[in-house]
Specification:
By secondary structure, the chain is mainly α. It has four domains: 94 residues; 87 residues; 200 residues, Serine Threonine Protein Phosphatase 5, Tetratricopeptide repeat, CATH 1.25.40; 127 residues, no CATH class. It contains 39 helices and six strands. The protein has a six-stranded mixed beta sheet, covered by helices on one side. Strand 4 and strand 5 form a beta hairpin. Helix 1 runs antiparallel to helix 4. The chain starts with a helix and ends in a 6-residue tail after the last strand. The relative contact order is 0.03. The structure holds one DNA strand of 10 nucleotides. It comes from Musa acuminata subsp. malaccensis. GO terms for molecular function: RNA binding; zinc ion binding. One of its GO terms (biological process) is RNA modification. It holds the Pfam family Eplus_motif.
DNA sequence: ATAGGGTTAG
């Protein structure tokens, strides 16, 4: 390849065959230095071929040899701009874009002007270097304008690309709109630019404008648009593009095929995606990754895994897809295992992989693992990236270390809305409603605009802390002051807030006042409140409404049977259970896990799978006896089924968190803290049990349930028994 | 110039 590009240059050389040959075969900087000395002695100006060769070699990608190359250039007998521009372009082809910018800076300072072929080079480099490059892009744009070159379509296209790559899509669009001649590449850069900046709807709109102005899209443009549709889960627009492709008889290459597969798998249409994928031969990495992603998103994690396992030559992206698949389908342990495997194979993660890994760690709530991931993040230079810091804040909150979360939060100079919201969520989860509200006030005083998620967090903070008036005020403020439209989730939070505070009638009226039909989330919140307060009549009504909306809503059946059980209506309990059985509705099984010395131990109810099972059950007996001495008596009121009292007692004593606690007590000392996580809500009896255990055994017990943390200490829980 | 993976809540 290099020989080919050097042919014309070699032909232009003065008759000095041996020197020429030496240039073409040189491979190291010392070697080049020798030749350079020889060139200077010969008095010939053959810097151009010399530099071309020097810059084409991989060694030009190290700072010291780049330095050398530039110094040769700047000290050549007549450093003219043609040579400088050639050097710049040679440099840009194979190296880190940052050095192209360094070289550009040196050439500028030496007073060498850019030609029209170098502007795009520098702009492309600037576009690839995020962060510091905005200034460069603007400067280069200004420079092009000064020399009148900004009317050149190639330069204009590059300017559009640079702005959009830096997230300044609107500025890119302004340049694009002023272009007199737009070829397909220009359209492609603008469309892709919108996608890069996350402006997918603008991309779709521009695509329509493009078609109505009579420009015929090619495969490249169509692949870009399909990708935009995939990312926005827009099957309507995507399907239209697919039809267009079929109607126009366009041949479908691997890129386009992958884009189509990705569209359908992103939208959850796995049947169509699978059909297209079956037609693909050979299977390519991108299409396979899209399939893995699609199945994982639907929870068909085993299917995803089997495709993943069949892939040879896995790259970073498919590892990430599989890892995030596990992370998002509540298998954080598997996600971390896979990350380890990838790590051992020497595949280097990027920030996207790390976000999935951090999120997996957060969902697992494992503190030792969390620490390990944090160290990994620091060591590998990810710690300055804002999205990573945001994920870390969330991770530490969910692992029970609010202090660590707070530290990262405080040490984050530039905070975006997610940073603030994550911190608010952290306080909300730990029942610290006042701190959550204080963080919100701080956020507002810093001029950061809250979004819908921020308000969900705030309302949950109020709900978990019993701050009813504050919650009402925030809901109003969201509409009045921030002009945000409350969605189902917000109404659900409000119903939860009112319901927990025993304001059941007001909660019902609130639902009836909604401007749109309430969904399962909203009714579900009220149902939960009915269970807490034992309102059988309202609970029954709500559960029926819920089951009308979703006949397979497992939560509704469970809560309904709970309510009946609480009222000892065993006949009704049986009916509900039968109904569940007939419909094949399965109650989500409760399980708990505890991390001890870096290992995660999982427990189901009555679980005897643990290798130290005997020891654990022995400890549990002992614990129960000791707690009974201080007045504990199993609260069997919440046991769903009509069992004999003795059976009920046994059932409740074998809840998974009690097993986890027993192991925790065996393996820890007095005065230490025990961290347990559970996938569903903690029951009344376990809650009392934990409170007493914290006092009798002198441990702080931190229990994370589905939505929040309980910190038990000296017989008291941080939730104030309000959860 | 093009296709695949990501952070806050639920």
């Amino acid at each position: 390849m290099e020989t080919a590009t050097l042919q014309p240059l070699a032909a232009a050389l003065p008759p000095s065959p041996s020197l020429n040959h030496r240039i073409l075969t040189a491979t190291t900087v010392p070697h080049f230095k020798q030749i350079h000395a020889q060139i200077l002695r010969s008095g010939l100006d053959i810097s151009a071929p010399f530099l071309s060769r020097l810059l084409a070699l991989p060694l030009a990608s190290s700072p010291s040899s780049l330095d050398y190359a530039l110094s040769v250039l700047l000290h050549s007998p007549s450093p003219d701009f043609r040579l400088a521009n050639r050097a710049l372009r040679a440099l840009s082809s194979a190296t880190d874009p940052r050095w192209t910018l360094v070289a550009y800076g040196r050439l500028r300072r030496a007073g060498l002007a850019l030609d029209r072929f170098s502007f795009p080079t520098v702009l492309r480099a600037a576009a690839r270097v995020r962060g510091v490059a905005g200034v460069v892009a603007q400067e280069v744009h200004g420079l092009a304008a000064k020399t009148g070159l900004d009317a050149d379509p190639f330069i204009q296209t590059a300017v559009v690309g640079a702005y959009t790559a830096l997230g300044r899509a609107a500025e890119g669009r302004m340049v694009f709109d002023r272009m007199h001649h737009r070829d397909l590449v220009a359209w492609g850069v603008m469309l892709d630019g919108y996608c890069q900046s996350g402006c997918y709807n603008e991309a779709l709109q521009l695509f329509d404008e493009m078609k109505s102005s009579g420009v015929i899209p090619d495969r490249v443009i169509l692949a870009t648009i399909l990708s935009a549709c995939a990312r926005t889960r827009n099957l309507t627009s995507g399907g239209a593009v697919h039809s267009y492709i079929v109607e126009s008889n366009l041949s479908i290459d691997a890129h386009l095929q992958s884009a189509l597969i990705s569209l359908y798998s992103s939208c959850g249409s796995m049947d169509t995606a699978q059909r297209l994928y079956d037609d693909t031969s050979p299977k390519n990495l991108v299409a396979s990754t899209a399939m893995v992603f699609g199945y994982a998103k639907l929870g068909k994690i085993a299917v995803a895994r089997s495709i993943f396992d069949q892939m040879t030559d896995k790259d970073l992206v498919c590892w990430s897809a599989m890892i995030s698949g596990y992370a998002e389908s509540d298998q954080p342990n598997e996600a971390l295992k896979l990350f380890n495997e990838m790590h051992l194979l020497g595949v280097k993660p990027d920030q996207i992989t790390m976000l999935s890994v951090i999120s997996a760690c957060a969902n697992m709530g494992a503190r030792d693992q969390a620490k390990w991931v944090h160290i990994f993040v620091d060591k590998n230079g990810f710690h300055q990236i804002l999205s990573i810091r945001n994920a870390l804040i969330d991770m530490y909150s969910k692992c029970g270390s609010l202090v660590d979360a707070r530290t990262i939060f405080d040490e984050t100079a530039f905070k975006d809305v997610i940073t603030w919201t994550s911190m608010i969520t952290g306080f909300a989860m730990h029942g610290n409603g006042r701190s959550a509200l204080a963080v919100f006030d701080h956020m507002i005083s810093e001029g950061v605009k809250p979004n819908g998620v921020t308000f969900i967090s705030l309302l949950y903070a109020c709900s978990h802390a019993g701050l009813v008036d504050e919650g009402r005020r925030i809901f109003e403020s969201m509409i009045q002051d921030y002009r945000l439209e409350p969605k189902h989730e917000h109404y659900g939070c409000m119903v939860d807030l009112l319901g927990r505070a025993r304001l059941l009638q007001e909660a019902l009226e609130f639902i009836e006042s909604m401007p749109f039909a309430p969904n399962v989330v909203v009714w579900g919140s009220l149902l939960g409140a009915c269970r807490i307060h034992g309102d059988v009549k309202l609970g029954e009504l709500v559960a029926r409404r819920l089951l009308e909306l979703d006949p397979n809503h497992d939560g509704a059946y469970v809560l309904l049977s709970n309510i009946y059980a609480k009222a000892s209506r065993w006949e009704d309990v049986r009916e509900v259970r039968n109904l569940m059985k007939n419909k094949g509705v399965i109650k989500e099984a409760g399980f708990s896990w505890i991390e001890l010395n870096g290992h995660v131990h999982e427990f189901m109810m009555r679980d005897k799978c643990h290798p130290r099972s005997n020891e654990i059950y022995g400890k549990l007996d002992e614990v129960v006896k000791e707690l009974e001495l201080v007045g504990y008596s199993p609260d069997t009121a919440t046991v769903l089924v009509d069992l004999q009292e003795e059976e009920k007692r046994e059932a409740i004593l074998l809840h998974s968190e009690k097993l986890a606690l027993s192991l925790g007590l065996i393996d820890s000392k007095k005065g230490s803290s025990i961290h347990i996580a559970k996938n569903i809500r903690v029951c009344n009896d376990c809650h009392t049990f934990m409170k007493l255990a914290s006092k009798v055994f002198e441990r702080e017990i931190v229990l994370r349930d589905r939505t929040r943390f309980h910190h038990y200490k000296d017989g008291v829980c941080s939730c104030g028994d309000f959860w």
